[in-house]
Amino acid sequence: MIKLKIRNVGNSLGVVLPKELIARLRVSKGDQLFVQETVDGLRLTAYDPEFEKQIEIAKMVMQEDRDALRALSK
Length: 74
Prior knowledge:
Layout: E1 6-9, E2 12-15, H1 19-25, E3 33-38, E4 41-46, H2 49-64, H3 66-72
Antiparallel strand pairs: 1-2, 3-4
């Protein structure tokens, strides 16, 4: 477990990621990260353009086929 402290960053709040966490995420300055809400809490992952593309497609399908999905969920 890694403990992070919330700090002021200009008019916002932020956290500083320790070197070990940056290495495990395989990110560097300027990279993007995803924060996903899960049943267990939040998940922080490195930016993945393919995953974002899949999410956008899923959102479109859910929007277009809302009635069919609702019927299937019953």
